[in-house]
## 1
Amino acid sequence: MTTPSPTAAVESLLAFWADAGVDGLLLDEPVDRIEAGRIAPPQAPVRKVAPPVLQTPARSQPELSGAVAEAQARAAEASDLEALAAAIAAFDGCALKFEGAARQSVFARGRPDAPVMVIGEGPGAEEDAKGLPFVGRAGQLLDRMLAAAGISERVLITNTVFWRPPGNRTPTTAEQTICAPFLERAIALVQPKLLLLVGGASAKAMLKREEGILSLRGRWFEWRSGDGGLEVPALPTLHPAFLLRQPAAKKRAWLDLLTLTERLDRPERRS
Ligand code: URA
């Protein structure tokens, strides 16, 4: 495994906290700013550091719509998940393919007729290397959680984008929008009973909501396809990468899984 650069590590940590809904930092002790203002701080030598490139340059609206239209056309032609994986691999409309991915597209693993689709954020380095989603440390924790909930054999696991974002940054809305037709087609082919949305970047993109994951998690929402033809109940939960750093939050993720399995095994009401 390669060691991430300090910049990438800091970006990833900040993205992770933002994802968790953190929007401010507090010191342990209060600071008297009035008093502090009277004492001139020592002048540190000014060192200019070029800002890291965090985002793919924004695409113009016609470029974005063209890429989405092409993704829709390619996705519509896929009559099963294998064909869909091939369509994704052949698609050049998402910049991540050329900027982030070192090796390949990463689509899905699990049962093609799964009653639960687990949708994460996007592939990382290990996923890029193996061509499968959630196979790194976070993925191994996800697998243990699904096994503990007794649903390992009842899931299909995928992501909102199908190529690794550079430095593991959060995918942009444009990147998620371009990949969405493929994800929608996957949902249409699998016909899951429920969606488990893993992490803030997945929950926000799928549900078109602005709240942080700590507020969205554990509540049921209705996911709707772009054309409104498909609706699936969706439950946001905490990302396993977050749980690796905040083990105390595992309890909340476990409650979410219980919420999921209770609905999964609830007998359908006859009308
Ligand atoms: N994190 C994700 O959101 N997806 C993966 O596939 C791996 C890590």
## 2
Amino acid sequence: MKIAIPGEVAADEPRVAATPDTVKKMVGLGAEVALEPGAGVKSGVLDTDYQAAGATVAKNAVEQADVVLKVRRPTEVEVGTYKKGALVVAIMDPYGNDAALTAMAQAGVTAFAMELLPRITRAQVMDVLSSQANLAGYRAVIDAAAEFGRALPMMMTAAGTVPATKVFIMGAGVAGLQAIATARRLGAIVTATDVRPAAKEQVESLGAKFIAVEDEEFKQAETAGGYAKEMSKEYQAKQADLVAEHIKKQDIVITTALIPGRPAPRLISADMVKSMRPGSVIVDLAVERGGNVELVKPGGVAEVNGVKIIGHLNVPGRLAATASSLYAKNLYAFVEILVDKKAKTLAVNWTDEIIKATVLTRDGAVVHPNFKPKSAA
Ligand code: NAD
């Protein structure tokens, strides 16, 4: 059983899919582990660290691999260098990327999308969305604090009292809850909103105030999978009125709202941005999915009437070492279920609910029901 970890080809991707710790564990499962030279360097892991953990380092690491572990979906060129039948595990970003999924199918690899894991107890240890979103929520507060020209906590000094900063978190899922906790630790006064009723208690348990349009639609807004639904036009209008009033008085706003498989909901209009005081800061963590904020500049910081809108891409990558260590642990837990530990060989159970939910391509075809080409569906 050969497992390979290539370096990420995207210039803006500093994360890596294995750490010395997970290499050691994979060797313990009976695998031969090979990495491409420099694969971990942007996450602070040297080739020698991997070698000390039992891996080999070679340019052609992927060619003979039975399993390839990646952060991002491999490009057509990359996948062309993999063995037919190889299992490829990554964050595949499958929505709206049909051509790329077809390319993986045609290359003959079996691709698993980690973001499609079912949110069941057994899969929590593999949950890459949670591990990465948690770090993004933390980093969003740090980025906002760095751009904000004021201190966050209340300070009573001989020269006078500095008031505490007001932070508003929109979307209280994994990223939002961590943003609330981080902003509270820094001494801010925190409010938060969401469309799922379950979020209310979680927000309040972190010491923040919950603000939302709590009508009949709100009571039904959570899907069986625990995610938000797309809200009606009427709800969106009521929500916009509430947000418009609240946002004027805020110093920092962090938006994290997502709906699986849909564009991110637009929560902050240009007028709302302009209603904020100069010097205020907005962080849009949904920027890669279209953004929650009008006027956000993907990959940069926009300034409108003195209000900064931060639109960094790949926010977990801004904490590459921590993000890689958690991501690698998630992948190791997934690899464990692909293996027969006694025989020390690959033994994929295609009827396992985790496997069924994540497998995108197999035997030359896109097989996932949500992504099968229409004619084959
Ligand atoms: P997500 O990333 O899909 O969305 C982020 C947040 O945005 C969610 O809380 C969502 O309700 C909110 N949102 C969507 N539309 C909105 C709108 N119009 N206005 C305001 N907010 C809006 O969500 P997530 O972080 O993945 O978390 C979703 C839920 O799943 C949470 O309750 C979380 O605790 C739960 N969860 C469960 C597991 C598990 O059981 N293994 C793992 C992770 C998360």
